[in-house]
């Protein structure tokens, strides 16, 4: 066992693993040995009653049978006490089991050996030998994990009988002794083989358990690391977006003033740089959500023509600055109205076209949209973005869509970028159920092709979003914005100043509160038409303030509450809605974003109520 122990320790087992392995083996032995404890008094009776042994020597037969029964009961109780006594002293428990086994074997050996001495090779002697052989064979199966126990039991049971056969002096006795000796040698060799296979199987099973535990620990650590990464990204997003709101908002307000040309150019640079930084943050968050399997798609009605117009307006000026041609074409047969996720589709196109323009110094960049097949309900659409830029080598195709990689490492220094755009695009396309590929020749250009299955909308159908937009456009002319009063709840002084200024420029009246408690006090003093509520605040945060306000309002009224938060990861919107807020505005938001949100809720509320305008305070 010392060699086996050394081998196991060398294979990576610890002392705790060895102890657990031994415990499992002993527990298995305890379960298997229970049925055999009562077999010894039974075989004593069988030998005595099947022959004239009991009639010739009743005191010996029944006395040894009774002794065997007492030992068997003691063994049974001791084996059943595994859980109670084993952990206290494993060696003591096992010593008790082995002592009981050898004692039972010794009692039987005495009875069987005397049967051979009295009856020779007659029926009683042969029956004793046969039962002894069966008991030894059974010991291989029950005590296979401990070869020393097997050897001891076989020696106690069989050696005295072999010696007695030889002492008979007859030819039959010698032949039987030789046959029994050969059988004993076979049992010993077979027991050794069983022992090795048993321990090998137990060791392999334990190794699998150890590896499974290590994999489980690794998985838990990976999940913990992923949670920590998500929390870090969320916190960093919040910390960056909060001051960025002040930068973006103040810069937009500056652009509305009469600035000298040089100053206006500087402010425009600030706005552009802020947009690049926000795009980078959004890319990192998107990739994190995709990795965690938390990116979800929405299904809304949209027009591909609107997306085509948007990318044309967005990238035509950038292409003109580089003196390259930018073209967008839509083939015949493309449905006018579709169901899908236009924002994610637009994100993929922006990534691909932005890269195409960035890596093209002369020639053209083209976007072509065409049907990839026709179906009664589905409308698979193929998008082709081609350019005459620097191209991509064949070797780089394998890692092109991997995160944080670029086809040419020097491109990072020359063109900038994190290498996330294509990785995110590929994951989004696959999430939509489509596929993306690339064809390229270095120095000639590259063509990215992706196909996504979309749903066709009937020609007479109008998407819900479009219908809501029409209703809002009608209602906006019904009330002047000065008739609405808005409560702005924001603890950051800069953001509070910027948001107040934005509301003023949009024509709304507003009051400010620094935290949730001040907001509740202000709402108790007078009614407001809408509340812009920051989520993370001292004293009382926006979530708890919203819950308290909803509890106070009950069914009497419902004040629209729009969350303003710099958190922008999966679950934040749901958390806001669960607290009782009505919508979600992610910082930093532009003045147009704020205007659209206010129009959506203020005019929707006034339209849903009676025709009388709300009273101004």
Textual characterization of the structure:
The protein is α/β, with parallel strands linked by helices. Helices cover 62% and strands 12% of the residues. It has helices at 2-10, 15-33, 39-50, 53-56, 58-80, 82-85, 90-119, 123-142, 147-167, 171-255, 261-291, 304-321, 342-358, 409-415, 421-431, 464-475, 493-506, 516-525, 542-553, 572-579, 591-608, and strands at 300-303, 325-330, 337-340, 364-371, 378-387, 435-441, 445-456, 485-489, 509-513, 530-534, 561-565, 583-586. The strands form two sheets. Strands 1, 2, 3, 4, 5, 6 and 7 form a seven-stranded mixed β-sheet that branches. Strands 9-8-10-11-12 form a five-stranded parallel β-sheet, with helices on both faces. A hairpin with a 3-residue loop joins β6 (435-441) and β7 (445-456). The chain is elongated and about 130 Å long.
Features:
elongated; single chain; 7-stranded mixed beta sheet; disordered C terminus; 617 residues
Total strands: 12
| Strand content bin | 5-15%
Alpha-carbon distance between the two ends:
91 Å
Largest β-sheet summary:
7 strands, mixed
Number of helices: 21
Rg, nearest Å: 43 Å
Helix content: 55-70%
Please mark out the parts with pLDDT under 50 across 5 or more consecutive residues, or reply none.
409-416, 460-477, 607-617
**Based on helices, strands and strand pairing, what is the structural class?**
alpha/beta
Quaternary structure type? single chain
User: Based on CA inertia axes, which overall geometry fits?
Assistant: elongated
In round numbers, the mean pLDDT is: 79
